[in-house]
Amino acid sequence: MTVQNIEAAVTALKQGRLIIVADDENREAEGDLVGLSSKAAAETINFMTKHARGLICAPVSEQIAKNLNLWEMTKENTDEYQTAFTISVDHKETTTGISAFERAKTIQELANIHSQAADFNRPGHIFPLIAKNGGVLERRGHTEAAVDLAKLAGDTETAYICEILKEDGTMARFQDLKQIAAEWNMPLVTIEELADYLAYSSIKVNAKVKLPTKHGDFDLSLYQDKEGKDQLVLSMGQIRDNEEPVLVRVHSECLTGDIFGSHRCDCGEQLEKAMQMIAAEGRGAILYLRQEGRGIGLLNKLKTYELQEQGADTYEANVSLGFLPDERRYDIAAWLLKKEGISKVRLLTNNPDKVKDLQQYGIEVAERISIETTIYHENKHYLKVKKDKFHHLLSIEGE
């Protein structure tokens, strides 16, 4: 993530300039020109039509869409990426609505806090798009990116965008976009950078204390994430700004295992073993994530225990309650590591999903280190399910 890229883009938007936003390579892998609706001008609209050549749309927040009575164009959205097009509009003070000047007028009025639904004729020549409230952290689309950037600029939550096509009519991909950005002298940012920036900037350390334990002296840092949850980092030694990979355990909260020593799972012993291994090296960190019961919370976790006592396994029990088999996310782990100045880890885990997710969010996993614990009669079937259904890398054999 490059903080400077995002901040430079926001500065340009505030100045009324256009920027380029590229989405993920595994999504549309396309780029859009983006500007703030409040600063739309005939010149920038004309630039879009002449050089970008795509469809000019106006992303708006859900609240603005509601205020202006902008509902989705169709109740059954079959678009692959669920782009939330509304009925097209022209401002009532325009004539045909198609000139660069009149399209700029319509876009500006979408950003006017005094505008009302009756101020727009339908259909028209500008296509509003409704952004998800969670922005790019919920949906990684240009619609959400544009509105998130408008928020960062301190402006009304609406923007205008246009896909970038090459002269031959094909879509400009990332390598093309880098060349185009240099040619047009405008900032280029990716949705991945924006998502990282938003999540990264929302995490704040609220407390940092010394924590002497039976395994040695640790530092305990409490971060508060964007949802207000307390996330913990237990560390020992110099972990910041070091080229050598850091020994790290990403541990999801388990009250029954961590506190009461439950033999239903292996969590408590894994936590204990991770502390021992870090203390032995004198350097490392444990991320204690508040996502109890594979992300479904303590109450639902205990409900799955009830189902397991009736014959279901841990995978089936989660699904029976209407959840995914595993609701946990590890993006928060990557952001906590970045906050702690860690970019390269030796990861204590049996879960390949943790490796994949951390790498996806920019953390280099130099090594995966197995962390197997005691097999009890009570958790043998549980461990077998983790191996067979969750694909954890465990040595336990079949019953």
TrEMBL record:
<feature type="binding site">
    <location>
        <position position="265"/>
    </location>
    <ligand>
        <name>Zn(2+)</name>
    </ligand>
</feature>
<dbReference type="GO" id="GO:0009231">
    <property type="term" value="P:riboflavin biosynthetic process"/>
</dbReference>
<feature type="binding site">
    <location>
        <position position="28"/>
    </location>
    <ligand>
        <name>Mg(2+) 2</name>
    </ligand>
</feature>
<feature type="binding site">
    <location>
        <begin position="27"/>
        <end position="28"/>
    </location>
    <ligand>
        <name>D-ribulose 5-phosphate</name>
    </ligand>
</feature>
<feature type="binding site">
    <location>
        <position position="28"/>
    </location>
    <ligand>
        <name>Mg(2+) 1</name>
    </ligand>
</feature>
<feature type="binding site">
    <location>
        <begin position="249"/>
        <end position="253"/>
    </location>
    <ligand>
        <name>GTP</name>
    </ligand>
</feature>
<keyword id="KW-0342">GTP-binding</keyword>
<protein>
    <recommendedName>
        <fullName>Multifunctional fusion protein</fullName>
        <ecNumber>3.5.4.25</ecNumber>
        <ecNumber>4.1.99.12</ecNumber>
    </recommendedName>
</protein>
<comment type="function">
    <text>Catalyzes the conversion of D-ribulose 5-phosphate to formate and 3,4-dihydroxy-2-butanone 4-phosphate.</text>
</comment>
<comment type="subunit">
    <text>Homodimer.</text>
</comment>
<feature type="binding site">
    <location>
        <position position="142"/>
    </location>
    <ligand>
        <name>Mg(2+) 2</name>
    </ligand>
</feature>
<feature type="domain" description="GTP cyclohydrolase II">
    <location>
        <begin position="207"/>
        <end position="369"/>
    </location>
</feature>
<feature type="active site" description="Proton acceptor">
    <location>
        <position position="326"/>
    </location>
</feature>
<comment type="similarity">
    <text>Belongs to the GTP cyclohydrolase II family.</text>
</comment>
<feature type="binding site">
    <location>
        <begin position="292"/>
        <end position="294"/>
    </location>
    <ligand>
        <name>GTP</name>
    </ligand>
</feature>
<feature type="binding site">
    <location>
        <position position="32"/>
    </location>
    <ligand>
        <name>D-ribulose 5-phosphate</name>
    </ligand>
</feature>
<keyword id="KW-0547">Nucleotide-binding</keyword>
<keyword id="KW-0456">Lyase</keyword>
<feature type="binding site">
    <location>
        <begin position="139"/>
        <end position="143"/>
    </location>
    <ligand>
        <name>D-ribulose 5-phosphate</name>
    </ligand>
</feature>
<dbReference type="InterPro" id="IPR032677">
    <property type="entry name" value="GTP_cyclohydro_II"/>
</dbReference>
<keyword id="KW-0862">Zinc</keyword>
<dbReference type="GO" id="GO:0005525">
    <property type="term" value="F:GTP binding"/>
</dbReference>
<dbReference type="InterPro" id="IPR000422">
    <property type="entry name" value="DHBP_synthase_RibB"/>
</dbReference>
<dbReference type="GO" id="GO:0003935">
    <property type="term" value="F:GTP cyclohydrolase II activity"/>
</dbReference>
<dbReference type="Pfam" id="PF00925">
    <property type="entry name" value="GTP_cyclohydro2"/>
</dbReference>
<feature type="binding site">
    <location>
        <position position="254"/>
    </location>
    <ligand>
        <name>Zn(2+)</name>
    </ligand>
</feature>
<dbReference type="Pfam" id="PF00926">
    <property type="entry name" value="DHBP_synthase"/>
</dbReference>
<comment type="pathway">
    <text>Cofactor biosynthesis; riboflavin biosynthesis; 5-amino-6-(D-ribitylamino)uracil from GTP: step 1/4.</text>
</comment>
<keyword id="KW-0686">Riboflavin biosynthesis</keyword>
<feature type="binding site">
    <location>
        <position position="270"/>
    </location>
    <ligand>
        <name>GTP</name>
    </ligand>
</feature>
<comment type="function">
    <text>Catalyzes the conversion of GTP to 2,5-diamino-6-ribosylamino-4(3H)-pyrimidinone 5'-phosphate (DARP), formate and pyrophosphate.</text>
</comment>
<dbReference type="InterPro" id="IPR017945">
    <property type="entry name" value="DHBP_synth_RibB-like_a/b_dom"/>
</dbReference>
<feature type="binding site">
    <location>
        <position position="267"/>
    </location>
    <ligand>
        <name>Zn(2+)</name>
    </ligand>
</feature>
<feature type="site" description="Essential for catalytic activity">
    <location>
        <position position="125"/>
    </location>
</feature>
<feature type="binding site">
    <location>
        <position position="354"/>
    </location>
    <ligand>
        <name>GTP</name>
    </ligand>
</feature>
<feature type="binding site">
    <location>
        <position position="314"/>
    </location>
    <ligand>
        <name>GTP</name>
    </ligand>
</feature>
<feature type="site" description="Essential for catalytic activity">
    <location>
        <position position="163"/>
    </location>
</feature>
<dbReference type="InterPro" id="IPR036144">
    <property type="entry name" value="RibA-like_sf"/>
</dbReference>
<comment type="pathway">
    <text>Cofactor biosynthesis; riboflavin biosynthesis; 2-hydroxy-3-oxobutyl phosphate from D-ribulose 5-phosphate: step 1/1.</text>
</comment>
<dbReference type="GO" id="GO:0008686">
    <property type="term" value="F:3,4-dihydroxy-2-butanone-4-phosphate synthase activity"/>
</dbReference>
<dbReference type="GO" id="GO:0000287">
    <property type="term" value="F:magnesium ion binding"/>
</dbReference>
<keyword id="KW-0464">Manganese</keyword>
